[in-house]
Amino acid sequence: MIDVRPFASLGGANHGWLKAKHHFSFANYRDPERMSWGRLRVWNDDEIAPGTGFDAHPHRDMEIITYVREGAITHRDNLGNEGRTAAGDVQIMSAGTGVVHAEYNLEPEVTKIFQIWIMPDVRGATPNWGAKEFPKASKEAGFAVLASGRPADAGSAALPLNVNGAVLAATLAKGQTLTQDLAPGRAAYLVVAKGAATVNGAALATRDGAGIVDEPRITITAEEDAELVMVEVAKE
């Protein structure tokens, strides 16, 4: 099953400094049909004005992944971590027992991000933060694993997550196709960060999402040059 969620159908809010769209229920947006997708709980599409951001606030027992689409985001937390993550790159924060962090757009232009929350398999883990560059050019069409807690990815260069799931990304030239297997009991959620693509024949435009379940193989074809971000998690 492919559940296409057009960008225009997403909930959201405009706070002036922050324009947010929500693929799933979040803050004041409530839709009982869009609460989560397997262990994926939040996928927010945020635009943050220059010189603004999220002041210090706490999290616990959540895997929080930030994928930067344009601009850059600067992270600081009470554990002493600090870093700037630029467009096309990803950062993770395993909140675990608790962390207080702030995220700011210190750039002269609007920063655009996907913020993704995945429910962890283990509660009370040691908090962790890290960042990774996204391989922006590849000779072969395929997903790069940016962050993962899947046993098959143990020992890889992916950022670690406290969940049997992964965050993947790919760039495709127009007309290029990739395939990805999806094991029984697994679910995926894919968003086209840039461009347009079809997923098993279902059309997705820029910033559209697709919930994918009970599809043993995913075939993605770029209708335009495309940048894709996908989360793969347990279905239950």
Automatic annotation (TrEMBL):
UniProt cross-references to InterPro entries, sorted A to Z: Pirin, Pirin_N_dom, Quercetinase_C
Pfam families: Pirin, Pirin_C_2
Annotated ranges, domain Quercetin 2,3-dioxygenase C-terminal cupin: 154-233
Secretion signal span: none
Domain Pirin N-terminal: 12-118
Superkingdom, natural source: Bacteria
Family of the protein in this entry: Belongs to the pirin family.
UniProt name for this protein: Pirin family protein
Provenance organism: Falsiroseomonas tokyonensis
